[in-house]
């Protein structure tokens, strides 16, 4: 219940408040979104595995977003930003895929 | 691969397992039970929702901006292309104007200047002549689709080489040709027939086989003179030995285009008593012959490579050229003997000078 409520609140805040994203942060937003999705899938899988922990979820989400953005920022400073963001997307994409596969196994038993 | 395997195997944050182990064996733990836990979960999910939504909204907002920037760039490209086209047209117009003014100035100065222009290659000329078509031996990748990387090039003895073409052209000059063009490219005194890689170049423009050499002159006589001269025998030898086919035929009317890329550097009336050595210095092996009348020196700009040039100075103008007593003088430089079986790939300059007799023309050009 509270989970759905939290999600809805987040979407509503994002849609209606439309916080002005600073220009310096805009390039890292897509990466942050992917990192956030990774955290969510990880959390759902942990829940289905029966080892969910709210603190771990919260902290892993925050750190994922920050670290992913930081890596890309560092890459931008070094001139390899696009390559590094590709790498981050690949790694997070693999994680999302395998977590989604685990969730699928839990839900459909297949 | 271990990196990929690692990523695949540890897709779940290890913190979950650690936290579960720290809690001990109090059974499966799904949704947090405490209010604090629920609040953390809610806040985390709210953050996730906010981040995802903001990202989506931002991407959505940026889309029209990107499209606008793209449109602006396309617009700028089109604008620049248009103005470039316009400038190109302007260049063409001006070039035409310069040409006509030049012609006009030359015509007003000397009645024979049109003939001079024809003789030196600056003007289009029409008249009887011969057409010589030389074709590479079959199966040598001839026909214009030679792949420069995979082609065997000149090491393949069935291909016509620059020196062969030089010899043929020199033979035509020596046989009394008044103007020569190769594949529609007019030769001037400063034209160079060279090889670069796989291709035969005339004035740095690559030729595509078959090679069509057109020469103005008294057709049948030119044919027989050419056939009997050394160049004709050479061509026959090429056909016998390497299968390079050549056909020569007299033509009633040929039109040779004007040479392109030739700028008129100097045009000054020479005094009638000027000695032959007083003619302009072309700086090439084509030894100029002095003549009464106008002396025009066309220079081919950067296209002339003196080190490997075939230069010929046809000083007989077509108007006076019924019987230009032209003779070939000197063919030098590492020529291979026609009977030599080995065809080396090194390119040695073959220089030949054809000088017409100065008396043949009243207004002769000395390129």
TrEMBL record, chain A:
It is found in: Cell membrane. The keyword Membrane applies. The keyword Cell membrane applies. The chain crosses the membrane at residues 24-44, 56-74, 80-103. Keywords: Cell membrane, Membrane, Transmembrane, Transmembrane helix. It is a multi-pass membrane protein. It comes from the Bacteria. Belongs to the sbp family. This is Small basic family protein.
